[in-house]
Amino acid sequence: MGYYISMFVVAFLVFFASSVVLATDTDPIPENRAQISQWFQTNVKPYSQRKGTLDPALDAAEASRRVITVNQKGGGNFKTLNEAIKSIPTGNKNRVIIKLAPGVYNEKVTIDIARPFVTLLGQPGAETVLTYHGTAAKYGTVESATLIIWSEYFQAANLIIRNTAPMPKPGTQGQALAMRINGDKASFYNCRFYGFQDTLCDDRGNHFFKDCYIEGTYDFIFGRGASLYLNTQLHAVGDGLRVITAHGRQNANDQSGYTFAHCKITGTGTGIYLGRSWMSHPKVIYAFTEMTSVVNPSGWRENLNKGYDKTVFYGEYKCFGPGSHVEKRVPYTQDIDQNEVRPFLTLGKIQGSKWLLPPPKY
To answer: Is there a contact between 131 and 169 (Cβ–Cβ < 8 Å)?
Structure first.
């Protein structure tokens, strides 16, 4: 009899654990902005409450954390970020938290695929800046980034990531990335990204951005990522044609796409577009987002290839502000309802229940 009771208890615990994981993937971001913090705390619990429910490799990595300190003025383990990264062994299996003292780090940094489980952590309330001046003319577009991430399970918090290459003149090409994220299962908290053309290459993999700021001119968020942006400001600068997104989805079966929830679109002048069809099947959704008057009334940049009118997926749901009026939107804007938007507003979009964790404390 005791055997059957034990088996029943085990079965119940397995079912309960499965239910917890499922809930974090299906609970939609609330419409009420004031409820975001509670939603996040409920659905993105710390590792201490998630043991046994995460990806096995991540579970093992979080159980054995290591902290490295970087301070340009001395007193830390290293004086440069690149030195700290090189100290991480290839094939790393432990969470490595790199604490950066406030300051300006003028370095071009790459975290390669052989060094997963890396966290770059700045001090809250202080300015910790990663900066470089790489350009497409010198490095190629995607290699021009100040910070390039290939590793999986990456985290960053409380950082400013900047490309200081000059703003290109209107009508000229001047790609210069602040960051390229090419690793799967990456999260960014309270980070600010500054550039002009192609500021953020959000490419390949599941990514989460919360409480961030992204500034640029043209295609300043681009790539093939499956990404959720929450409570993030999108700020367009400069004159002439400005476009926020150029998503790189190329076929209808691709599960990638960008969701912007409870974000805010600001900028200078008028005529900012929400996105354009860089590739044939871009998928971009704005929900509960404040759109100021800088947004072009048509919303989305006209497709140069008219065949893309039938393959783009541009959705807006319960956005507000003078730039949110849909009366003059291009005809291929998706009229999505509550049921259609729901999958884009859950952690299931980025498979978050298996890997997404809050940032560590400094």
So the answer is: no
